[in-house]
Each structure stands twice: as C-alpha cells, then as structure tokens.
Amino acid sequence: MSTITTEALSATTLLRFATAGSVDDGKSTLVGRLLHDSKSVLADQLEAVRRASVSRGQETPDLALLTDGLRAEREQGITIDVAYRYFATPRRRFILADTPGHVEYTRNMVTGASTAELTVILVDARNGVVEQTRRHAAIAALLRVPHVVLAVNKMDLVDYAEPVFAKIAEEFTAYATELGVPEVTAIPISALAGDNVVEPSARMDWYGGPTVLEHLETVPVSHDLARCHARLPVQYVIRPQTAEHPDYRGYAGQIAAGTFRVGDEVAVLPSGRTTRIAGIDLLGVPVDVAWTTQSVTVLLADDIDVSRGDLIVPAKDAPEVTRDVEATVCHVADQPLTVGHRVLLKHGTRTVKAIVKDIPSRLTLADLSLHPHPGRLVANDIGRITVRTAEPLPADSYADSRRTGSFILIDPSDGTTLTAGMVGESFASPEPVKDAAEDEGWDF
Fold it and tell me: Which of 332, 326, 314, 340 is nearest to 418 (CA)?
C-alpha cells in the first residue's frame, strides 16, 4: 500500500461522494475496483476477499466484497446498508458512501447523498436509463449535489461501443438538466475489467475524458461554508455553578455555517431577542473567532432566555421564523404520509410537534410531471408538502443552506423516520393551490 505523509494529507482537500444506481449495475464492484487500483486496500483485506470469493466458487477476487460487509449482503450479492469507506491519494482525501440499488432502500441513498458534494450514478450499458436511474438523479437534484457523474458500466458487455455510451449519456444528461442538476460528467467504464476507473482504457480510445479517479481528484470542491449565513444551533446550556465559575452561562453547539466573532450583534431565534457575543470558548480556551464545524461555547452579553433547540444568528442576517413550512420531501417510510398526519419535525437541535397541512403534488419520475393533490405519499415518493408546526421555526431555504434548510419528520409513536425534507422551492414546485377551508380545524 502506498504511504501518504501527514504533511501531504494536510495539504489535500476532502471530497465526500456517494454512489447510486440500480440493482446489479456494479456499484460495489466499482468501489472495490477504485479502492484496489488506487492501492487503498490493505493486504489482509484483499486476502480475506480472496478467501471469501474462493469459498463461493469464484476464480478471481470479487472486489464488491470490499464494501458489502453485511452477511445478508454477501449471501444475496446485493448492497443493503450504506457502506462508508475512507481512502486517500496524494491529491485528495475521500469519504465514500456506497448506497443500495433496490427501490426498497432508496431511503439509504438519501442518507448517503445528503452530505455529498458529488454523486456517481451507475447505469448498466445494456439496460440504459431506467426508473431507478431517474429516481437517483431526482434525489441528487433535490439534495443540491453540485456534481453528478454518470458512469456507464459494463461496457465490456456491449463490445465497448461508442454509440451505446453516447445514447445513454445524451438521454441522462437531458433528464438531469431538466431537473436542474448543474453539472453532469459521463464516463464509460468496466468496473469488472478496470477500464477507465483508475487507468485509461485502451479498448475505448474514442473516449478522451478523465477516468473516474482522475475526475474525483480534480473536480472543484467548495468547502468555504465560513462565507455562508452564520448559524449556531444551541445543543446544550452550560452552567457549572462552581466556586470558580459562579456566574458562567454558556451556549454550546457545533457551528452549522458561517463565522462568529466576539462583539458580533446576534439574535436568538425563535424569540428574536438580540444581544452581543461577549466571548467564545473553543476546547476550553477563549478565542476571538470561530467558524463552520467547530464545536464552541458562546457567552452572551445579556442574560436572555436561551435553551436547547434555539438558533443563534447574526442580527442582520436572520432566517424567516414561521409555523408553516413549505418543502420538497422524499418519503422514506413504509407507512404512508397523509394530509392530517401528526408528526414530530426535527430541525437541527430543535424538535417540535407538527401536522401535515397539505400535499400539493407528487412528482412523476418518468416525465417530471406533477400529480396534483395526491392526498398521500408512499415509500420513495418525492413531492411537495406544507407542514404546520406547534411552535415557530427558524429555517433557511435549502438552496441557501443544506444544513439549516433540511429537516426530518418523525413518527411520534415509535420514533421512526418518515420523511426527509428540504425547505423552500425546488424543481417539484407546483402552482400554489389555495383552499378556503385549509386554515380551519387546527388545534395549535
């Protein structure tokens, strides 16, 4: 295995990416090939895969076993859970989420892609773009994943024919563009043979673009969340009440976006009370400035009511506080989501009671048309909903902030996650429909 120094790692950037695709399109094989050919697999791991492959009657190591770790996955030859892998090259570090292909596990793809900057969507060259391909493209668009790679796999089974690749790439790119995906890079590959995964393929000299790894290493990645709207969800109120710190009152949490400085004028939402940052503690040490992903404790100049779930924001850059949240959602539970459904809405560190007020539309994946007022969403459906919350909620648009513009709906009876939501407009936005009686009968 190649050795990468600590200095080299500190100089490289980090890319979070996810893989998706239909069943048997070769996602796990691609990931295994990527890890193997980039020399990111330890010798004992490769030996374990070799032994497992021999026991299953295979002559060559099944690289898919590098990611399919669950017993059921190995027995069935499918991916069930999201498999996270961490690897690095001299040019970049990677966090990879290998997500399942079955329709039943679409919810796992939502989980894996929710923090990704790039999604690799695989297509079997023999089958082309299928419904699950469209679903994964729609989810990538909903989650605002900035880069999408279309990996047309199993080119060895279509004689490495350029027209086959070109037709699939054209169809998918047109569909993704209509969804609003900002960038699509199509790459013809054979994960099993290793063509265009890490090394260029001699069998496809008609293709002049990058290999999968080359694209992953060079795609622009913007981590400058420090320039975004500053947001600090309060996770814990710290009051030691000791002889050393008799009056200490700090508000701890992880900065979701932006930068905070001592002296900044801030507002605490949803109350709207304003004050000034008197101090910031980072790992117990006072600092003048803190930024995105740092876990800090903020001290405020005034003694105002702040509790877990509140949001500390710049006074002049506060999100709207509302009780009616309009969003695009992907329903992930087996239990349908219906109008009138009572739920818990978790947004950041805040959880409030809510009720599904309206379901204006459901997206039809085949032609991206909107089915108006379906009345309910079933597992894997994508649609628009309006949720009324029992308490005011400060929420950004998902287009402005993936972290503070997202939420989940939870079944209050058993804690099951029902729906993943993205606040604000999206490609699924319908024309607003107003019902004169829609505000009647609400009990909060």
Answer: 332
- Would you tell me how many other CB atoms lie within 10 Å of the CB of residue 311? 28
The pLDDT tens digits of the residues spanning 211-232 come to 999 999 999 886 555 567 899 9
CA-CA-CA-CA torsion sign (80, 84, 87, 93): positive
| Spatial CB neighbours of 214, under 8 Å, sequence gap ≥ 6 | none
| Residue 270 scores a pLDDT above 90 | yes
Contacts of 153 (CB under 8 A, 6+ apart): 21, 25, 26, 30, 122, 123, 124, 125, 189, 190, 191
Spatial distance between the Cα atoms of 280 and 298, rounded to a whole number of angstroms: 5
Using the predicted structure, report yes or no on whether residue 291 has a pLDDT greater than 50. Answer: yes
Please give the Cα distance from 200 to 285 (Å, whole number).
Answer: 50
Residue 165 has phi, psi (to 5 degrees) of -60, -45
Up-side HSE of residue 244: CA atoms within 13 Å toward CB? 1
Q: Find, among 290, 299, 308, the residue nearest to 250 by Cα.
A: 299
Torsions phi, psi of 75, nearest 5? -70, -40
Other beta carbons within 10 angstroms of residue 307's beta carbon come to 13
Phi, psi of 106 (to 5 degrees): -60, -35
Beta strand ranges found along 171-309 (DSSP E):
184-188, 232-233, 236-238, 250-254, 259-261, 265-269, 273-282, 285-287, 289-291, 295-300
First to last CA, the chain: 60
Per-residue tokens: 65: 């076993």
Q: Which residues face 97 on adjacent strands?
A: 18, 84
pTM: 0.77
